[in-house]
Design goal:
By secondary structure, the chain is an alpha/beta fold. It has a single domain, classed as Spore Coat Polysaccharide Biosynthesis Protein SpsA, Chain A. 45% of the residues lie in helices and 22% in strands. α1 links the parallel β1 and β2. The radius of gyration is 17 Å and the shape is globular.
């Protein structure tokens, strides 16, 4: 009997008019390159209270658009998942580009039947030396601990719903908590959570040009020193929420 797979690709977006079309085009091209019997997909863009024309551009590109009025990344991802019809969920940031190779790796991971989900390593162009070191450090940590970067998280829908989705008490790094919960859920059922490395996800390096090294270091140290207080307070997370684009 032919296996059937329906994949929901969820893109949270806050004021992403500059990049949303590129992101959606990369998804469309990747899906088209992977046309095989039994594989279907849908694209859901969550307009997270944008003040630009992100939603309009997403609709013109053929995506199903959901509106989430509260500006919070985890809440936006959960809103998209609530509307999804797939038995697998792929969360992709709007400043990232899905490639045919990475999608093929994801589908292969799903078809193996051995995993609850995955993340991916990332590729960022034109980084200053200190930013490159930061990304390298994160990459090693991600692979070692099997923590997904928020730019791409893939998981079984039933696992996502059982663990409660993204933690809406957190305004950043909720993907790490979700990774831990999915690993625990998977272990109880003989399934793994992995980080794909063959085709790194291409994502924007804009944060490293919009923020100085001092600003980024300050944000990182604040999270390390006061993680709970910082991650639960949007005002302390300017790197994610001050609207620089």
């Amino acid at each position: 009997m032919m296996a059937i797979m329906h994949l929901s690709i969820i893109v949270p977006a806050f004021n992403e008019a500059r990049l949303i079309e590129q992101c959606l085009q990369s998804i469309t091209l990747s899906v088209a390159s992977h046309s095989k019997p039994g594989f279907t997909s849908e694209i859901i863009v969550v307009d997270n209270n944008s003040t630009d024309n992100t939603a309009e551009l997403a609709k013109l590109a053929g995506a199903h658009v959901v509106f989430e009025p509260i500006n919070q990344i985890g809440r936006a991802r959960n809103a998209g998942a609530a509307q999804a019809t797939g038995d697998w969920l792929l969360f992709l940031d709007a400043d990232s580009l899905l490639s045919p190779g990475l999608l093929a790796d994801i589908v292969q991971m799903i078809e193996s039947g051995r995993y609850v989900g995955c993340g991916s390593t990332m590729h960022l162009d034109d980084l200053p030396w200190w930013a490159n070191l930061t990304v390298q450090l994160w990459t090693r940590t991600s692979i070692l601990c099997r923590w997904a970067a928020g730019a791409l998280v893939v998981c079984r829908r039933d696992a996502f719903e059982t663990v409660g989705g993204f933690d809406q008490e957190l305004y950043a790094l909720d993907e790490i908590r979700l990774s831990k919960q999915l690993k625990r859920w998977g272990r109880e059922r003989g399934l793994q959570f992995t980080i794909l490395t063959k085709h790194p996800l291409k994502t924007s390096s804009r944060k490293f040009s919009l923020y100085s090294g001092r600003e980024i270091a300050s944000q990182i140290f604040r999270i390390f020193l006061l993680p709970h207080r910082t991650l639960q307070d949007k005002k302390r997370l300017s790197f994610w929420y001050d609207g620089r684009r």
